[in-house]
Design goal:
The chain is of the alpha/beta class. Helix content is 31%, strand content 27%. The protein is built from seven helices and eleven strands. The strands form two sheets. Strands 8-7-6-10-9-11 form a six-stranded parallel β-sheet, sandwiched between helices. A five-stranded mixed β-sheet has the order 1-3-4-5-2. Helix 2 links the parallel strand 6 and strand 7. It is elongated and about 60 Å long.
Length: 237
């Protein structure tokens, strides 16, 4: 947690009381800050800055002299289309992509996505994971999140319309074109399509290619979804 993310601050507001236990514990136990200390903060959808701790207890953190005068970092010109992964992996991926600065994340169904994943309570906690990612990445602007439970209609009806204005790739370990070669020829793509554990099946890769995506590989090694996401998204930093 490299900043304390505050709710949206009204213009001219300089005082605020927080009651979120995780934030209070972090200030007390990790940062080891006390009354009178200044800490880094950011207002959701607003600027970054700092605030002074007026009082802190196990249940409340009172901030004063809130100053928000630093614009948040610019989002990456990047949309990640990700086959919904295992619930345990989802938290880390949302946090990492948020911290990296991905502009939009679209979670889609795939052949290798277990149907039970769509009923996971982890999906209801996405805003919580985004908040963790923003505090890690020193950002205040959350990515746009979409859920698409029907892969084929999404690709045919929505993704296909992006082809005229976006460069798009699908990560596929058996492609003959490397991601590095694609970047050298075309530049960084604006859309990355990444499969869950086990990757995309050939039908899905073919459908994505038919609607504007270029298949690329990042090497001979078969990576876990987390490693692939970070390896691909890391090129944008």
């Amino acid at each position: 947690m490299n900043i304390l993310l505050l709710p949206e601050i009204e213009k001219g507001q300089t005082c605020l009381t927080l009651t979120e236990v995780n934030q209070i514990k972090h200030v007390q136990q990790v940062l080891e800050l006390e009354t009178g200390d200044r800490l880094k903060v950011g207002s959701l959808q607003g600027n970054l800055g700092s605030a002074v701790i007026e009082a802190v207890s196990d249940t409340q953190l009172k901030l004063t002299d809130i100053t928000l005068d630093i614009p948040p970092p610019i989002k990456l010109d990047l949309t990640v289309i990700l086959a919904l992964p295992r619930p345990k992996v989802l938290r880390r991926l949302i946090m990492d992509m948020t911290a990296i600065g991905v502009r939009e994340i679209i979670l889609v169904n795939s052949y290798r996505t277990d149907k039970s994943y769509w009923q996971s309570p982890m999906l209801a906690r996405i805003d919580e994971f985004i908040k963790e990612g923003l505090q890690q990445g020193v950002d205040t602007i959350p990515p746009v999140i979409q859920l698409k439970k029907r892969f084929k209609p999404f690709v045919e009806d929505e993704l296909s319309q992006w082809a005229t204005s976006h460069t798009m790739v699908v990560a596929h370990p058996y492609s003959t074109l490397s991601f590095n070669e694609f970047i050298e020829q075309t530049g960084l793509p604006q859309v990355l399509c990444i499969g869950a554990e086990g990757g995309w099946i050939e039908y899905e890769v073919g459908l994505l290619q038919d609607h504007g995506c270029q298949a690329v590989t990042i090497g001979q090694r078969i990576l876990r979804t987390e490693a692939a996401v970070n390896a691909l998204c890391g090129r944008y930093l």
